[in-house]
Amino acid sequence: MVGQPSGRPAWTQEDWAALGAFMQAFSQELLDSGELVETRGLSAPVHTRRVQLKEGVPVVTDGPYAEAEEVLAGYWVVECESFDRATEIASRLTGCPGPEHLRARAYADVRPIDDHQPDFEG
Amino acid sequence: MCGRSTTTSPTSKAERESRLPVIAAETEDLLRRLAPQVLGAVVRRYGNFDLAEDATQEAMAAAAMRWPRDGLPENPRAWLITVASRRLTDLLRSEQARRQREDTVARWTLTERGAPRPDEPRAGDTDDTLVLLLLCCHPSLPAASQIALTLRAVGGLSAAEIARALLGSEQTVTRRITRAKQSIRDSGVPFALPAPGELGGRLDAVLRVLYLIFNEGYASTAGTALIRADLAQEAIRLARTLHAALPGDSEVAGLLALMLLIHARHRARTAPDGSLIPMAEQDRSLWDRGAIDEGVSLVTAALPRGPTGPYQLQAAIAAVHDEAESPEATDWRQIAALYGVLLRLDDNPVVALNHAVAVSMVAGPRAGLELVQRLGADARINADRRFHAVRGHLLEMAGDCTAALEAYRAAARVATNLQQQRYLNQQVTRLQAPPGPSGPFGDRPAR
Fold it and tell me: Given B41, B114, B126, which is nearest A119 (Cβ)?
């Protein structure tokens, strides 16, 4: 799930509480249906370290990364019947509470994982 | 690699050879059997039903090229899924490039289903072929598209083969399939079994499509060939697959039984010159005993299990015909009673017509005619070949040859199938000549 830093002090105490309750219920439901493999929320982007090659040498940059326009806020790994089912699950994240201007810009991407392929093994 | 087996009809052999290199019949059977499984696995993992279907067709074509040369891979299913998945990635990339140029993105609105209940089938438990059948027969698609898409996505037939089977042009079939896949994509129907409460209605649509395919093969609506056995056999194959996925469903069993029991007579149904032979005149030793036994045991097991539906009742009627050693030995009383029950379930004028024939065999032509006259006001049937043909037959049995002649003439005028037209014109000629033996109705399936 991805959002964009707005620079505005948007989150109130109540917002955080509502978010926490939503996420807990969301993950609990996936746990109950047996579809949840793993989920993590990531800490603020300011704690990011980026590692990349600069002129052939690995260089570490401490966050925040100024050029970032979007921030990965967390992820879920689910094991479910189909890509369509995974999409359905992700669509429920659109019900996540929060300040309206953030809700309008947040999104979730869904991608199949390649390394677990029982179908391919027959 | 060896050539194709010689058991298939010459037309189907020619048909397939035009598309595929000469491959062994077992390889082709294997490919056709794997087609829905491969498509199911790819759609399940990556979505994109429309492109996944193209990718699966391409993987099948690649297999038909390579397997005869390189030998069968160790795991043919995994081979096909891998090739189809790679092809899908390529197709998606070019699709994405095209969409970016056109600045359009596929969008759909998701409907929320919530968490699956504990008793719902879990990943891998559901039969992809069943899901595919339900998808191809989605109620939002017109019947002609449901048929074409089912034959391609579940039956594994190419557009060219479907076009030949349905006597259409390949271009039309391709367009129809493309449009059908687009509307499935745009509707955002998920690749999953429908909610339990919805399954029944959706399954009805699948049964109807399979029976339409069967009838299309059995009594073609146009053209010269009366029986295109390949389509009927394909419908039976699909019905078997469905029965394997839902062994407890009585109507699925009933439909499979019905197809087997009707198809059992196909060798006796046409004369060497291609003309139609009515059931009463057929050489019953040509009937396929194995198919009859299978059909009878299927419907015998399904009927007491309930709930009773129209396919089981029609199968029961076909079974009574098939079990009679001669036309005279036919238990018409039981057939009339079964048609009576069927009419109460389903107000279908063709069923009513068949009921009238059965009643005439029990209580005489006048009793049957009385029922037929009532249908004269029914616009669904009163301009149909079958209405006039049955009327003609009953009038003849009742001794009213002048009226019978008129009825047969009317039937021949509206018949679209050349063989049926020929048969009806024979009746006209016969009645114009001095009296001879009577020729009863044909044994077209009753729907």
Answer: B41
ipTM over 0.90? The verdict is no
In a domain, B388, yes or no: yes
Which SS3 state, helix, strand or coil, does residue B7 take? coil
Cβ–Cβ < 8 Å for B355, B337: no
Q: In A, which residues are within 8 Å of B112 by CB distance?
A: 88, 91-92
Query: What CATH code is carried by the domain that includes residue B422?
Result: 1.25.40.10
Count of CB atoms within 10 A of residue A65's CB?
Answer: 14
A29 interface with B at CB cutoff 8 Å: yes
Residue B144 is assigned to a structural domain of this protein: no
Taking the whole predicted model, whether its pTM rises above 0.80 is answered as no
Asked if residue B71 is part of any domain, the answer here is no
How far is it, in rounded angstroms, from Cα B446 to Cα B211?
11
Distance from CA of B70 to the nearest CA of A (A): 20
Is residue B339 situated within a structural domain? yes
**Domains, in order of start, for chain A:** 2-121 (3.30.70.1060)
Provide the token pair at B241. 């697959």
Average pLDDT, chain B: 84
φ/ψ of B129, rounded to 5, equals -65, -40
Answer whether A83 sits within 8 Å of B44, measured CB to CB: yes
Question: Around B266, how many Cα atoms within 13 Å sit in the side-chain half-sphere?
Answer: 21
